[in-house]
Amino acid sequence: MKRFLIGGTHSGCGKTTITCAVLQALFNRGYRVSAFKCGPDYIDTMFHEKIIGIPSYHLDSFFCDDHTLNYLLSKHTADTDIAVIEGVMGFYDGTGTGSSAHSISRITNTPSVIVIDCKGMSDSIGAVIKGFLSYHKNHIRGFIFNRLPVRLIPFAKKLCAQLHTEYFGCMPKHSISIASRHLGLVTADEIPDWNEKMIALAKLAEEYLLLDKLLQCADAPIPAFQPPVIPEIPAHRPPVIAVAKDRAFCFIYPDNLTLLREMGCEIRFFSPLSDETLPTADGLILSGGYPELYAEQLSGNTPLLTDIRKKITGGLPTIAECGGFLYLHQSLDGIPMANVIPAAAFRTDRLQRFGYITMTAQSDQMLCKKSDTVKAHEFHYYESNACGEGFLAEKTDGRSWYCAQVTENLYAGFPHLYFYSNLNIAQRFVRKCVQYGEQHETNL
To answer: Which DSSP string do the residues of 188-241 spell out, in sequence order?
Structure first.
């Protein structure tokens, strides 16, 4: 299987831009391309999907054991010619506390290429190369030099030769940019000149990156793995899960939906921005996203707010993560919402809780039994005066807090869940949806 990982020296070094340039160039050449993102980030995978036309998936060594990572990599590359994996933060960052590009490269035996931001550097570039090659045992095959003056290309090639690594090209300074906001980059669908930007990036990639050499270094076997056992839920018909998906609710792990389908579920998407009723369904997932940017429009869709409140209070099994959690509040920045949770959600001026957590259930509930543990991730500027006490969240540095509103049919909280980290939560959710469907039999 041909694949390589594009890592970086640090966050902001240009690896997302270069990954998009490489994906677009390979796609334009006619390759069947698959894409992945190390870690929990949603936005970069949406960039990938916009380019290659199929979902981009996550590889996360905090959420998954080695067998599951290699299973997911093998599964999602089976019908493609080449896979491109985008790293997270700096290549080695996160090795001791959770997922890192280095960990993913090591676990999956994937050749890696490191992007160096060369702005303001000359000879120090050599020190960076040597440091990354020698810091830990690794699968680094070579380097791409971002924002490298064209006049320094011979110098960069010489450094790579001296340090016995590959020169995979450079990306000179350019004016192609992607806007950002409080949770990172804007989404691909919000960029009006997206196609023009990608065409320009692909042209730069063809001119300045050694794509053929990248492809030559990309051969590596995926390590042997034991696939996870996908739970089977007996049901007289496929349970239907309604999933919020639009500009306001767009943070969805594709693997969660794929797993639900493999467990026999049917997924029906709907838009809280435009649909006035929920699809007829046995379960509901209110995805994360940016409801705060569309609060007035969401609030104005009174029929759907009323329908959702009625369905959830009537027992509809529901998972509401971060943005979906905000949507269920009585108000969001003072603007009326669904009022399933009689509390206010509001913007703050800094990240409230950020990073990986392990959650311990404080009682029997829809997704867990008391004392069960679930791995999750938080990243939000918003806060609530009713975060809930369904779980105790703990970080590896010893910090802890209570989180999530939970009942027999509801999980609603800031933490995002990845089903492959604990297949039991998916199993319990689907089983609850089957039970709801049997008790509220309708024509689906």
So the answer is: GGG-TTHHHHHHHHHHHHHHHB-HHHHHHTTB-PPPP-----------SSPPEE
CA atoms within 13 A on the CB side of 236: 7
Q: What are phi and psi of 439, to 5 degrees?
A: -85, -25
Token pair 């450094």 is found at: 159
Q: Could you tell me if 112 and 105 are in contact, meaning their C-beta atoms sit under 8 angstroms apart? A: yes
CATH code for the domain in which residue 70 is found:
3.40.50.300
Same domain, yes or no, for 58 and 197?
Answer: yes
Mean pLDDT by groups of 10 residues along the chain of 444 residues:
95 94 97 96 92 96 96 97 96 79 96 96 95 95 96 96 97 78 67 89 97 96 96 92 97 97 97 97 96 97 98 98 98 98 94 91 97 95 95 93 97 97 97 95 60
Active site residues: 322
Residue 175 lies in a domain: yes
Distance (Å, whole) CA 114 – CA 19: 11
Domain range for 358: 240-439
